Amino acid sequence: MESAHPFRQHAEAAISRIAPWRLLPPLLAVVLGLWGLERGGSMWRDESVTWQVAHRSLGGIVELLGRVDAVHGLYYLLMHGVFEAWDGGLWALRLPSVAATALAAAGVAAIAHRLVGERAALLAGCVYAVLPPVQMYAQEGRSYALVAAAVVWATYLMLRERWAAYAVVLLLGCWLHEFAALALLAHAFTAWRSRGWRWSAAAVVALLLPLAVVSARQAEQQLGWLGRPSWQDWAAYAVVGAAALLLARGAPGDLVRVALPLVLLPPGLLMVVSLLHPWYVDRYVLYALAGLALLAGARLATARGWWPWLLAGALLAAFGFWSVWLRTPESRKDDALAVAAAVRERARPGDAVVFMPARRREWLLSSPEVYGELRDVALDRTPEASHSLQGTELSPARIRAALLASPRVIALLDPAGQPLDPYPREVVKREELAARFDLCSTTGVRGARVAVYARPGTCP
Hints:
Elements: H1 24-34, H2 45-54, H3 58-65, H4 73-85, H5 89-115, H6 118-130, H7 132-138, H8 144-160, H9 163-176, H10 183-191, H11 195-217, H12 219-223, H13 231-248, H14 253-273, H15 289-301, H16 307-326, H17 336-346, E1 352-356, H18 362-365, H19 368-371, E2 375-376, E3 379-381, H20 383-386, E4 392-393, H21 396-404, E5 408-413, H22 424-436, E6 438-445, E7 448-454
């Protein structure tokens, strides 16, 4: 760079020169992304939110973002355009993430190529593509793979000192999810002496500020469900951090200054902040794994003897079993399409339906052909009309009256053992069903229960 950290230039490092190996990391990412893309025809609740929001009108999406989920606003608008062009179900929902992961794998290879060489580039890009968390979000209809691609290519542009492009690409990542801004801390370790970087970083922060202000007002309803990082979160961070530090030993200094802060700082800082304000979820900083892939690729490129490759082979075998599991419905918290299928089998046209809690309405909103056959007796205003994700519900008294007027009720509940919401509307639902109805059947579905209630003595 022009500042105090010049980066080694390799004779083969003209990144514009096309070489066959450069296709391998993104091609591997595409192959892995397309393998089992439909996950057995499943869709979990967050993807269901993407589906139903992206299918609203542009005006409806904008109205929603003024109240909730502004942090995902750009992604919803992008997916609205995708579904307008091709309403291809699960493939249309997930293909943008597959493409973004391929782009990120190519970016990891480009960074390694610039800082180390061709062999490290090939290995680093492929390592990134095979990491199980990367594979997971390559097949998910959410923004995290796109954010990772933006951060990776912003990192590459930083090394090239293309400051205007750097600011645009990183800002794009931040508008896809504002926690991409944590990458600035990692980049500062490499480029803080560069005046161009400082101006670019300031521009990113300034242009992100409007989104940050809006999303800060929405933080309680957006992130209120989160708790402080669990011991499993800390253990995972410790394992990844220890692996990164071990791989950094003996790696080229230029690469270490880029990769190690990227692995450690964004997740580490977010976890520390989450001790006071619980905001941490690992997928919010998925892009940190690019740093781990860079270090692993560089070390494998200089490996001597058989043991590094034996260890890599053992990890790859373990990743293989993990990868197979990731392509099953059981790999996610729930399955909205399985819930809808269970409701379709058990419901009769005109049955009442209640969601316990109300936010589980998202299970059926992505299956309008099922939801439309039922009477949502607790619903006051639809999600579209209320500019919300799950709609608004009637008062407790009116919910009670609506249930009493219903001969048969389909109740959608969280799995047994989950905490019960203490809110009056939820209490009324539980009390009326227990006191006024017989429980005819309960069916467990991945991450949910479908219960059928009927008036006393009328269960089949």
